[in-house]
Design brief:
Belongs to the binding-protein-dependent transport system permease family. MalFG subfamily. It is a multi-pass membrane protein. One of its GO terms (cellular component) is plasma membrane. The radius of gyration is 24 Å and the shape is flat. It is an all-alpha fold and 285 residues long. Residues 281-285 have low confidence and may be disordered. Helix 2 crosses helix 13, helix 8 (173-181) runs antiparallel to helix 9 (186-197) and helix 12 runs antiparallel to helix 13 (246-284). The chain is 74% helix and 0% strand. It has one domain (63-284): Orthogonal Bundle (MetI-like fold).
Length: 285
C-alpha cells in the first residue's frame, strides 16, 4: 500500500512540474502577443516608452492604418496578400495532391530516384534560389507583379509531397482496385474515392500553402523592389519600421500586425482538428 502511495505521489509531483513548465512556456509565448495588442491600442506615439501598460487607449491606430494613405497603402497591400495567398494556395494544393497521389499509387521507372532527389532538394532553403529566380523573372519581364509571386510560391510546391504521400499510403489500395474492376478510371478513383477520404491532408496542405505567401518577406522584397502598389503585408509592415517612419507609424504597425494575424488564426482555430489528423496520418504512413 505504501509503495502504491509513493508511486501516486511521484506521479502527482511530475504532473505538477509538467503543468508549471507548460504554464511558464505559455506565458513566455503569449507575452509578446499581448504586448503587441496593447501597443496597437496605445495612444502615445513612439517605438519605445518606459512603461508596459499604456497611459491612454485609442482605436485611431486602426482607423489611420486604413485612412492615412499618403505614405503607405495598407488596405491595398492586404488585398494583394490575400490574392497571392489564395491563388498560390490553390495551385500548390493541386500540385501537391497530384504528385503525391501519383507517387503513392503508381509504379514507374525512376520513381525512387525522383523521390530521393526531391528529398535532397527539399532540404535546401528556398531563398538560396531567389537571385536566380529574380533574373529568370526579369528575363520574362515579370518582375514587380503579383503573378510573379504566385508562380514563385506555387512552382516549388510539388517538392513538398512527402507528407501527403504518407497519408495516401494509409488508404488501402484494395479500394482503388475494386473501383477499377467496376470500370472506374484513374481520374474517377482519384476524384470520387481518394479525395473524399483525404479531407484531413487536403486541409493540412491548404493551410501550409496559404501560410507561406501570407507571411513571406524575403521573396517579396527581392521581386517587388520599389513598386509600393504591389507590396504585400509583410514587406509593407517592415517599411513602417524604417527610421523616418517608425515614430509616427509604430503603433499603426502594431495594429497592422494584429489585423494580419486574424485571418490565419481563424483558419487554424476552425481547422485545427483536420490539421492534426493530416499530420498524424502522414506520420503513420
Amino acid at each position: 500500500m505504501s509503495r502504491y502511495r509513493r508511486m501516486s505521489f511521484n506521479k502527482f509531483v511530475r504532473n505538477v512540474f509538467a503543468h508549471i513548465l507548460l504554464f511558464v512556456l505559455s506565458v513566455i509565448w503569449l507575452f509578446p502577443v499581448f504586448w503587441i495588442v496593447l501597443t496597437s491600442f496605445r495612444g502615445e506615439k513612439g517605438s519605445f516608452v518606459p512603461y508596459f501598460w499604456p497611459k491612454s487607449f485609442t482605436i485611431n491606430n486602426y482607423v489611420q492604418l486604413f485612412t492615412d494613405t499618403q505614405q503607405f497603402y495598407y488596405a491595398k497591400w492586404f488585398m494583394n496578400t490575400l490574392i497571392v495567398a489564395v491563388f498560390s494556395c490553390l495551385l500548390s494544393t493541386l500540385y501537391v495532391l497530384g504528385i503525391s497521389y501519383a507517387l503513392s499509387r503508381m509504379r514507374f521507372k525512376m520513381r525512387k530516384p525522383f523521390m530521393n532527389v526531391a528529398l535532397i532538394l527539399g532540404m535546401f532553403p528556398g531563398f538560396m534560389s531567389m537571385i536566380a529566380v529574380y533574373y529568370i523573372l526579369k528575363g520574362l519581364n515579370m518582375t514587380q507583379s503579383l503573378l510573379a509571386l504566385i508562380l514563385v510560391y506555387s512552382a516549388g510546391a510539388g517538392l513538398n509531397f512527402y507528407i501527403a504521400k504518407g497519408f495516401f499510403d494509409t488508404i488501402p489500395k484494395a479500394i482503388d482496385e475494386a473501383a477499377v474492376i467496376d470500370g472506374a478510371s484513374r481520374w474517377k478513383v482519384f476524384t470520387k474515392i481518394t479525395i473524399p477520404l483525404s479531407r484531413p491532408i487536403i486541409i493540412y496542405t491548404v493551410l501550409t500553402s496559404f501560410l507561406a505567401p501570407w507571411t513571406d518577406y524575403i521573396f517579396v522584397s527581392v521581386i517587388m523592389g520599389d513598386n509600393y502598389d504591389k507590396y504585400t503585408i509583410a514587406l509593407g509592415l517592415y517599411k513602417m519600421l524604417e527610421k523616418e517612419f517608425i515614430t509616427t507609424w509604430y503603433n499603426r504597425f502594431a495594429a497592422g500586425a494584429v489585423i494580419v494575424s486574424i485571418p490565419i488564426s481563424i483558419l487554424f482555430i476552425i481547422m485545427q482538428r483536420y490539421y492534426a489528423e493530416g499530420a498524424s496520418g502522414a506520420i503513420k504512413g
